Amino acid sequence: MEQVHLFTKKLKPTHISHSLPFPTHVLEAFPFPQGAHTMKFEAVDATDNVWRFCLSTRLTGAYPKPVLLRSSWHRFVEQKGLVPEDRVVFFMERDDMVRRYTVRAQRKVMILMGQDVWVDVEDLPLYGL
């Protein structure tokens, strides 16, 4: 299966304390049940832990404005020790029958030759951080 990058989001204080907005274009990667505005899905992190998230869209307005609900997102934030300026990256693998999601929590550790170097938060001890 090929891994497809869904999106990367640098975290702001409101993402840490509240919900995580998703780009509208990635909704096509999430098969919402007919007529539903919420969908639960699982994503695996860098250490093969499974995280259960709830993705929600609003019922009114010009566009769906998808977000990960705080009830499922905040546990991930706390466990990973995420802070503003960290980032999360979501990927999807798909075959004919199954969709698998992956999530990475990353922190910028340096700038090397003008490029940001991001490391999974689980690997920060390897860098003495």
UniProtKB/TrEMBL annotation:
<dbReference type="InterPro" id="IPR003340">
    <property type="entry name" value="B3_DNA-bd"/>
</dbReference>
<keyword id="KW-0805">Transcription regulation</keyword>
<dbReference type="GO" id="GO:0003677">
    <property type="term" value="F:DNA binding"/>
</dbReference>
<keyword id="KW-0238">DNA-binding</keyword>
<dbReference type="InterPro" id="IPR015300">
    <property type="entry name" value="DNA-bd_pseudobarrel_sf"/>
</dbReference>
<protein>
    <recommendedName>
        <fullName>TF-B3 domain-containing protein</fullName>
    </recommendedName>
</protein>
<dbReference type="GO" id="GO:0005634">
    <property type="term" value="C:nucleus"/>
</dbReference>
<keyword id="KW-0539">Nucleus</keyword>
<keyword id="KW-0804">Transcription</keyword>
